[in-house]
Amino acid sequence: MMKKKLYNIFMLLVGVVSFAACTPEVDDAFDQSAAERVEMKMKECREVLTSAPNGWRMEYYAARTYGGYNVLCKFEGDNVTVASEKAGSTQNAGVGSDGKVITATSHFSIIQSQGVLLSFDEYNDVFHYFSDPKNPDYGVAGEGMEGDFEFRVVSATPEKVELVGKKHESRIVMYPIEEGKAWETVMAEIAATEDFMKSRSYQFVVDGVEETVDVTSNYRSLIFSYTDEKGENHRVAAPFIITKDGYKMYRTLRMSGVDISMIERGTTDEYFNISGVPGARLYTYVPTLKEALETGMWFITYEDLSSFAKPAWDKMREHLKTAGPNNTKNRLYWALIGTYTNKIGFHMLAGNDNVRWGLNIKALNEAEDEVEITSKPADANNIGKTYFNKYGLKGALEPFMGTRGRKFKLSSDSERHPSYIILTDMDEPTNVIKLWEEQKNYPYGDLDADKD
C-alpha cells in the first residue's frame, strides 16, 4: 500500500514537471523582476509616444462637468509641444492672429509610480491651464477645472494610448494625428463641427415617437431631461468632446432604450443621427429669445452697459472693495443673467462669494422677443441678500428689474446660435444692455485691477 502511494506521488510530480516544460511562457513571465518589467513598459511607452510623426490628438477631460477638449501633443526626446482648443478667455491657446495654432513646449517624463506614469512635469502655458487651481475662468479658487497633468498609462500602442488622471481619475485617450495634416487643419475641422452642431437646446426622438426628451447644453455636457412613468423628473448629464465627425460621449449613455456613444454631424443642422441606431435623432431646437435668456448663461460686462446703468455699477464696484473678509476687497470675477445652479436670476462671483438674486422673466408677446423682468427675492441666496442690502447689488440690478419690473425688447445676431442678446428698455431708451454668450471674466476690466 505504501509503495502504491509513493508511486502515485512520483507520477504526479512527473506530470507537473512535464506541464511546466510545455509552457515556457510561464517561465518567461518570471525571468524579470517587477521593476525590470515596469522599466520595459516605460521604454515601450516612450517609444510609442515619440514614434508618432505628427503627434497625437488627446481627448482631455478635467472635471467632467466641463466636458472634453482636444489637446494636440508631439513628443520629441524629453520635450512635448502642446496646442489646445481655447477653453477660456484667459487661456493662451487656440489659433493666433497669424492663423497658426498657439503652442508651448515643455519637459515630460515617464516614471515608475505604481506602474507607468506619464508626467507633464514642467509648467506648460497651454496644457497646465486645465490643472491650474487658480484658473480664473472655471471653478473656484483652489480648484479650477480640476484637471490632471500626471497620468497612469493603461495601454500604449501606435494606434491608441489610454490614460487615467492620477488625482482626479478622468479617462484620457490619445490617437495619432494623420501624417502630413497641419495642426491648423485639425483645429479648423473641430471648430467647424462645433459651429455646425451648436444649439442651446435639442430634442431627442426615437423612431418619431413623440415622447421627446429635452436636451440642453451646458459647457460641453448635454443635459437630458425627462419624466418617467411614475411622473418623476430626471436630469442626466452626458459630457462629450467635439471631433470633426460629431459629439463623442465620455462614456456610453443609455436613454429611452438607446445607447448613445456618438452623435454624428451629418449634412443638416436640423437634426443629428445617433451612431449605429437608425431612427434615433437629436433635433436642434430654435428657442425664442425669451427662452434663450432664461435657460442660458449671459455674461455682463461694464463696457456693454449704457450710461443709464454704469453709475450704479460704479457704486457697486466701490462697495466690493470692502466686501471681503475683514473689510478686504472682493474682486468681481464674472456676472450673468440666466440659469446657473438650476436657478433663474442674476448671478455673480465676487471673491469666493457666489451671489444669487432671483428674477422672473415673462413674455409680453407671441414671438417672445418682448419680456418683462421682475425681482424674485424668494430665489435669492443668503449672500445675495447681504450684497443686495449692503454692497450695492440693489442699485446694480435696478437697470434690469427696476423697482416694479422693466420691459425690454430683445434682439440678437442669430436666431439659432446667438452670440449675444441686447436688452433695450421699452420705457427708458437710454437703458440698453448687451449680454454675451461667451464667458466674460472680470466685468469691470482695468477699472477693477488689483492695484485698486
Could you characterize what this model shows?
With 452 residues, the chain is of the alpha+beta class. The chain has 3 domains: 45-182, Lipocalin; 198-285, Lipocalin, CATH 2.40.128; 290-448, no CATH class. It contains 8 helices and 25 strands. The chain has helices at 2-21, 24-29, 34-51, 183-197, 289-295, 310-320, 382-390, 393-401, and strands at 56-61, 68-76, 79-84, 104-107, 109-112, 116-119, 150-156, 161-165, 171-176, 201-206, 213-218, 221-227, 233-243, 246-255, 258-264, 271-273, 280-285, 297-305, 332-340, 343-350, 353-363, 370-376, 406-412, 420-425, 432-436. It has a 9-stranded antiparallel beta sheet with strand order 4-3-2-1-9-8-7-6-5. Strands 15-14-13-12-11-10-17-16 form an 8-stranded antiparallel beta sheet. Helix 6 (310-320) runs antiparallel to helix 8. It is globular. The relative contact order is 0.09. Mean pLDDT is 90; it is low at 1-27.
Helix content: 10-25%
Average pLDDT for all residues: 90
Question: Radius of gyration, rounded?
Answer: 28 Å
Coarse shape: globular
Characterize the main sheet.
Answer: 9 strands, antiparallel
User: Helical segment tally?
Assistant: 8
Instruction: Give the tally of β-strands.
Output: 25
Total domain count: 3
Q: Beta fraction of the residues?
A: 35-45%
N- to C-terminal distance: 100 Å
Overall SS class: alpha+beta
